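Support reply, case 0932

Customer input (verbatim):
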Amino acid sequence: MRDPKTERLLHYAYMKFARDFDTRYAMLLKTGRLAKWYSQIGSEATTVAAGLHLRQGDVLCSLHRDLGAILSVYLDPARTFPGFGFGEESDEVRPEPSELLYRLACQLLGRADGFSNGVERSFHHGYLDADHGIRHIGMISHLGSMIPVAAGAAYALNKDRSQGVALNFIGDGGTSTGDFHEGLNMAAVWKLPLILVVENNRYAFSTPVRDQFACDRLSDRALGYGMAGETVDGNDPLAVSEVMGRAVARARAGEGPTLIEAMLGRMRGHSEGDDSLKVVPEDELRQYLSQDPVPSFARRLFDEGVLTPDLQERLEDRISELVESALQRALDCPEPDTEVARRPALAPIEFDDDTNAAAEAEVDRTGDDELVTYVEGVHRALRAEMARDDKVVLMGQDIAVFEGAFRITKGLHQRWPDRVHDTPIAESGTLGIAAGAALLGWKPVVEMQFADFISCGFNQLVNVIAKFHYRWGVPCPLVVRLPAGGGVGAGPFHSQNPEAWFSHVAGLKVVCPATAADAQALLQAAIRDPNPVVFCEHKFLYRRIKASLPELETPPVLGRAKIRREGTDLTFVTYGAQVWTCLEAADRLAEEGIDAEVVDLRTLVPYDGETVHDSVKKTHRALVVHEAQRTSGFGAEIAAHLAEFTFPWLDAPIRRIAYPDRPVPFAKGLEKALLPDVESVVQAARELAGF
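Our regenerated output:
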């Protein structure tokens, strides 16, 4: 423990460091060597005081004004400020301060040696290096979105029994987002060790708080969530530290999250040069400038005898040395090689040698005459993977005691009550929590009650989860199960086939099994995959098809199609429920002397073009069949691939059979009139064969 004077000096050292670092980059913006800069001037007292409370293994989730927290978490004070009494022995865990500052400087300049190698801008980077005691999850531009992710990190810390804490920051503007509510509500319900600090500078981008919310204090919202909340003077690092101390103690003791509102003065525009500071009245701005936390705290330390002119000069010289050295090295660092832009969006797959044996020991094998349904295949996959890997956790609405809307999780909560979690109706919050947990080594499987509801979590899936590996090179192993498709009279909000939404997003895998065996095998493969997987389960198939499950081999690598029926005259390319439509159509066509081959894609991303192309080169005709809507459905992508790679072998135009561009009507007769069926497939195939 440091004595109070040393602790005060340490706070000032990091605050001054953050201020000088920020000022230097603002100057680079003015000279044209930096494209954009979001100043953190005025937030140093809050961010430094909060960051200094984290210890090795805790998680920092920052925004673009939290440089003070980043410096206090990254930098070992003994090596950063030698000779100032902050500890003469280093922690021997964190890297050298000069190297971290160099990488940070490169990050901010978009140079090759930055944390994201030029892929990410400014403070959007992540630095997850548990071996060096640093776990830093950066931001995306959709403010508020990282609150559930931070809650997910807190969930992982809780599950690991580490007594760790996740610290997240948000501005006053971001508290109006839905993810603020969903993240805090779930953190409170699950008593997660999350601390959310609201940097309330009263104006968001340019909107005064009177036009943002009606409550007197944002911390009052904590009461509604059943969690602790405090408001503090964000210009006073000691006051912030005191409040943080209480929040950290609560979190480490298992008493749940805390909402801290730090009141700050708006001293800069939203970004430098955007003229947004004009919304602050001049007299109010003068007041904020007079309360500038860095010189104000320096004066206080002079009055207390903690800071002297000589000590201040030595400290400023050391800070200048570190800042200028890092900056000059970064300016000399080359631009990223253009090949960096082509780095993979998906993490490589590595299966453990003992994976197969462990899984086989768990699953009950069926006899030759015993049949299981598609839904049972999904259930068996979940049960097998939970038995094999205690990092697999299930999340979703009504999946615990009730066992899910389709009873897929039957018996799983009873067996693993601490790993099967009911969630509130909060798709975005649940996916964010799953993402944070996945980044820290857990393997969440999230059930959307219906595939249609994934739209409420769209941002988390496509902007947060899908991009982690490309941005930072870290895996995000999670599965989102989507009970999809029509044919059951469920209407326009329970019958959609959203697979094409996600096949367009780099960083996601998309799986659409058609058989009971694939429902099990592909789901097990998805859970073991280091990437996020959207797993589309067709509801119509749940209890309508059955199969004898073969002896389980090592789960297949996602991205391999399967020939369901050999043929010579034309190829059906299909997936999901339409596999069965095409197989029946092929039997009908065989009676007419037309020999159709049926290719089941099984996974849309990765796409097995080789199998599809080889089939079409053999048959010279292709009919693409899927249940999703025609316009921009995945069939359009298949047709484009075929046109590009098999055109010389085609003897007829590529045809598509798909759902018309309409929502799904409720009445079964109306729905049936729009669904692709055997007759429509047979008719199209006849025309194609006779072309």
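We compared this against your earlier run and they match. Two observations from our side: Confidence is low (pLDDT under 50) at residues 353-364. The chain is about 40% helix and 15% strand. Please reopen the case if you see a mismatch on your end.
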